[in-house]
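re: the backbone from monday

yeah here it is again, tokenized this time
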């Protein structure tokens, strides 16, 4: 059974910014990015415990083809996505976002 799923507004903003950046590089690349993010999010929703814990109780799923990671928490049947960050960003940036 799939988990309940919450995406924080900040994570949606992360995605929108990355989409705009990729789309600005090549028409259609932003759409490819969104598709890969959607596949990652759906995998997390279906099997939220598949990714390792990377910080306290938070997990990280990697987006295929793009250097992005989805940071989320799975508690009592609910997945909460807190951020979608480029993997070369300072780890303090995503840690600051976590509650």
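seq for it, each position gets an aa:
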């Amino acid at each position: 059974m799939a988990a309940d799923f919450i995406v924080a507004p900040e994570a949606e903003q992360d995605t929108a910014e990355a989409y705009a950046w990729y789309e600005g590089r090549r028409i259609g690349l932003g759409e490819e990015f969104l598709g890969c993010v959607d596949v990652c999010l759906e995998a997390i929703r279906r099997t939220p415990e598949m990714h390792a814990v990377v910080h306290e109780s938070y997990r990280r799923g990697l987006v295929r083809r793009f250097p992005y990671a989805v940071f989320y928490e799975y508690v009592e049947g609910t997945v909460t996505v807190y951020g979608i960050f480029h993997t070369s960003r300072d780890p303090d940036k995503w840690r600051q976002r976590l509650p």
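The beta strands are 4-7, 53-55, 58-62, 68-75, 78-86. The first helix runs from residue 9 to 25.
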